[in-house]
Design a protein that fits this description.
disordered N terminus, mainly beta, globular, five-stranded antiparallel sheet
Length: about 250
């Protein structure tokens, strides 16, 4: 439907997923080598070491596995877990301007744990991509002077709802994973394309409802949140994020 004059959309261009761009929200998990590299380098890239009789490269500490459950209301113990998420392509709709749109309904956060998504290699001929949608957190109440709101520091709790004016959408290239920092608002994993994507997910879980995951509906906030997905005829991917009224 047309945008109303009282709720003009805020357009935010989507950027490629890189460690620097994603740093306010967490870390990027990716290989130090390009996909075209098929033989082991004569010198290990920075941050890596040889392993397995110099037939492999090891990159230690690729993402944190942090628990802040000691600060939860219940104080219930939590355990580190590995899960497999099989994510299928999201349904897109075409706007009146012939744009492919993904309508974001929910943002969520895990208040007391990091959450890492590591994609598994696919043998399918159908190409798909992950779109990573994240938002800063509004303080509630304002933090004391000198206290950082960086997601990795749980002393920033209690925190408020997502700041939709700071929403970002990142395009993950093949083989790239992410680790959401403690308490980082994000959309449930969004896959676009023709085939499914499988992810190994690492996080702490206590089993306490409301402590493992918090959700907020954004369909009614600020007119809604939409990701604009454009694919050129030559296959080049272009993504844009629209916050505001529905198209």
């Amino acid at each position: 439907m047309p945008s109303s004059a009282s709720s003009q959309p805020i357009r935010i261009p989507t950027t490629p997923l890189t460690p620097t761009a994603f740093a306010p929200f967490g870390t990027v998990v990716s290989s130090a080598l390009p996909p075209s590299t098929t033989t082991i380098p004569t010198t290990p890239p920075p941050g890596t070491t040889y392993a397995n009789q110099q037939t492999a490269l090891k990159t230690p500490n690729i993402s944190p596995l942090t628990s802040a459950y000691r600060l939860s209301p219940s104080g219930a113990p939590a355990s580190p877990t590995l899960s497999l998420f099989t994510c299928f392509p999201r349904r897109l709709y075409t706007s009146q301007y012939k744009k492919q749109i993904y309508d974001v309904k929910v943002l969520e956060r895990h208040p007391y744990t990091t959450q890492t998504f590591i994609p598994l290699a696919s043998t399918s001929a159908h190409k798909s991509y992950a779109v990573i949608i994240v938002a800063p957190t509004l303080p509630s109440p304002a933090p004391p002077a000198g206290v950082s709101l960086t997601p990795y520091f749980p002393q920033a709790r209690p925190l408020g709802p997502p700041d939709l004016n700071g929403l970002r959408a990142f395009m993950a290239e093949e083989g790239m994973g992410v680790c959401y920092g403690v308490g980082t608002w994000h959309a449930p994993m969004v896959v676009v394309g023709e085939g499914r994507m499988d992810f190994v997910v690492a996080q702490w879980i206590s089993g306490r409802e409301g402590e493992d995951c918090e959700e907020v509906g954004v369909g009614e906030m600020e007119g809604g949140v939409e990701v604009e997905v454009n694919v050129d005829m030559d296959g080049e991917r272009r993504f844009g994020l629209r916050v505001g009224s529905k198209l």
